[in-house]
Design brief:
alpha/beta; six-stranded mixed β-sheet; about 425 residues; Maf protein; TIM Barrel
């Protein structure tokens, strides 16, 4: 198929986002003056940059062009890319322990002029950082080509407490807005459902995170956390290409599985709720069970799996923060539990999972890094523990950065739960 538009940006994150969403476009960087005009406000400047980039590339390539620009704003001042390490340190000291705005603007143009524009503003909150922490981050070299001297998907995420708004604005492009604009201009086909549109954005977000981490997006499985969602939405998800569905309530899951039986390809069922031994008969029918943290539970599942003539893959749930309400084995109890379950016929431990406490984006990433380190320290050739199930709608970006193989996404895919 002939190219429909050109991406007027050299940003690898923007390219990765579009590619992850299933959108391919040639890339052409724009050669324009990126100096703010006297008295020009941050939003006006950011929007002008997007328009000028789109117009310049459209004129050069003869195709409609998408131009984007992102700025970091603190105290009404635009923080550009640092000129050197000292400048990066100074920028990060200004951002430490406070909030700032990130503006991302986009424009679509052709040779006739600007066709469509849009922008998004996200407020980012930084954790307080010591001088040593800032200097250690700057020493990685990462801040040198980043506006505001940080990248939210890179090591700079460790400085971020949280954000309000569209996460992808901070990455460099509000992908949902941009895709809708491309559809409105006839440059992309409309997705068949609202869920399919959300899935495109999620896949673009995962792809951008993998690009930052040097990972293959194909190594991350998106599990649609479909618990309490109506059957119609599950059908939309399957039609859009989601194959992995996660259920927590046994009776609901059995009813949904019966209603969706016979599909080709069949759904891959993940049990992501609390595992109760008295329901082991049914839970053992899942393709993967997340959240086993007792040998007796593994034994109950193993008996049922053996009776069905199969080996059931399971993940061990680890409680990293001492939150008894969420369940899980403490890190210091994990080696003994793995040894105990190794002797249980009918189950196979394929990895670990966790539910971190609400500690902000940087806090979640630290917990996910802890789980990965636990896995790396306990994995052997005989028991490689390849899977890491970690991350949900609010923190899966941090999980992807730390090596998640499975992210359990509900609200961001399906919308609010029915109950």
């Amino acid at each position: 198929m002939a190219d429909r538009f050109v991406l007027g940006s050299g940003s690898p994150r923007r390219r990765a986002m579009l590619a992850g969403a299933g959108v391919t476009a040639p890339v052409q960087t724009a050669d324009i003056d990126e100096t703010p005009a006297t008295g020009e406000g941050p939003l006006d400047f950011t929007a002008r940059m997007a328009r000028e980039k789109a117009a310049a590339v459209a004129a050069k390539r003869g195709l409609p062009a998408l131009g984007c620009d992102t700025t970091v704003i603190v105290d009404g001042e635009i923080l550009g890319k640092p000129v050197d390490d000292d400048d990066a340190v100074a920028m990060l000291r200004r951002l430490s322990g406070r909030s700032h705005e990130v503006i991302s603007a986009w424009a679509i143009a052709d040779r006739g002029g600007i066709r469509r524009v849009g922008h998004s503003v996200t407020v980012v909150r930084f954790r307080p950082a010591t001088q040593a922490q800032i200097e250690a981050y700057v020493a990685t070299g990462e801040p040198r080509d980043k506006a505001g001297a940080y990248g939210i998907q890179d090591q700079g995420m460790r400085l971020v407490e949280g954000y309000e708004g569209d996460y992808l604005t901070v990455v460099g492009m509000p992908l949902g807005q941009v895709l809708a604009g491309l559809v409105a201009e006839g440059l992309l086909p409309a997705p068949p459902s609202a869920l399919a549109g959300r899935l495109m954005v999620l896949r673009g977000r995962i792809a951008a995170g993998c690009d930052a981490a040097g990972r293959d997006p194909g190594a991350v499985t998106l599990v649609g956390a479909s618990k309490a969602q109506p059957l119609a939405l599950l059908k939309d998800a399957l039609a859009a290409g989601v194959r992995d569905l996660g259920e927590s309530y046994v009776q609901d899951w059995l009813e949904k599985a019966a209603a969706l039986a016979g599909l080709d390809p069949a759904p891959v069922w993940h049990f992501i709720g609390r595992v109760q031994r008295n329901k082991a008969k049914h839970i053992a029918e899942a393709d993967l069970v997340h959240g086993v943290y007792a040998a007796r539970t593994a034994e109950a599942l193993g008996r049922r799996a053996r009776a069905a003539g199969r080996v059931l893959p399971i993940l061990i749930q680890v409680d990293l923060a001492g939150e008894a309400s969420k369940g899980g084995v403490a890190p210091d109890g994990l080696p003994a539990l793995l040894d105990d379950i190794a002797g249980v016929d009918g189950v196979r431990v394929d990895g670990l999972m966790t539910l971190p406490p609400q500690e902000g984006l940087a806090g979640a990433r630290a917990r996910f890094a802890e789980l990965r380190a636990l896995r790396d320290g306990l994995a052997t050739a005989e028991r490689p523990l390849p899977l890491l199930s970690m991350g949900m709608s609010g923190d899966f970006d941090a999980a992807v950065a730390e090596g998640a193989t499975h992210v359990r996404v509900g609200t961001a895919l399906f919308g609010p739960r029915g109950r």
